[in-house]
Amino acid sequence: MPQTIRVAIANKHRLYRECIKHILEMEMDISVVGEMSHADEINNIVDMAHPDVLVYDENLTRDDTVEVIRELSQKFNSLRYVLVTAQTSLPPLNSLKKLGIYGCVLKSSKLKDLLLAIRYAAKAETYMDPRLEVREDHIISLEDDANQLNHLTPREKEVLYWLSQGFSNQNIAKVMYLSEKTVKNHVSRILKKLDLSDRTQAAVFAWKTGLAQNTPEQLLDVLERKK
């Protein structure tokens, strides 16, 4: 039998807490040992119930969530946290882990993401909602990627599209009726604007944002609508 994960839920809405508790207790390896509706209750409940993981909703208090958890982590250094947030931009991953935050899920996340985050956190491993991209120094959401795409000109988007289809600069130049040098300059500007280091990262970016999934005919329609 796997070791039972002791979980506490911190959320100011009673209905939410009861729903999450009911769902979690249907899992064989999870036991809900405490609930709290205000940050002031956390110390006493953690002291008494000794949870392994605290599912912490960022709206529990008006105070800065990271600062609240920072204070808690100084007292309960073995407690791990799963942060439930609506934020699309979070502090650096390493900073979160130092505070004991091993899981981050969005308020719109699926139940399976919350369960995975809890189980990963219990093992001191990180789990982020799939809609959050984890990079070495920060976390950004796919919505942020889409916003970055809007920083490109229509011509740069078209170059990025053909690049994502595996075209070389020479072939992109032919299909777009440009000089190879002009294409090379466009690629350099694209990498700089998107803060990417090479063509491979640019191609991955294009597929993630959906740009690369268009047909050439659809691409022209997309570019026309964005003008």
TrEMBL record:
**Entry's Gene Ontology molecular function annotations:** DNA binding
Q: Which SUPFAM superfamilies match?
A: C-terminal effector domain of the bipartite response regulators, CheY-like
Domain of life of the native organism: Bacteria
CDD domains from the xrefs?
LuxR_C_like
Going by the UniProt record, its keywords in alphabetical order are: DNA-binding, Phosphoprotein
InterPro entries assigned to the protein according to its UniProt record, in alphabetical order: CheY-like_superfamily (IPR011006), EvgA-like (IPR051015), Sig_transdc_resp-reg_C-effctor (IPR016032), Sig_transdc_resp-reg_receiver (IPR001789), Tscrpt_reg_LuxR_C (IPR000792)
| Presence of the UniProt keyword DNA-binding in the record | yes
Note the Pfam families from the entry.
GerE, Response_reg
Limits of the Response regulatory domain: 6-122
Note the Gene3D superfamilies from the entry: 3.40.50.2300
| All copies of domain HTH luxR-type, residue ranges | 145-210
Q: Where 4-aspartylphosphate occurs, residue numbers? A: D57
GO terms in the biological process aspect are: phosphorelay signal transduction system; regulation of DNA-templated transcription
Protein name stated in the entry: Response regulator containing a CheY-like receiver domain and an HTH DNA-binding domain
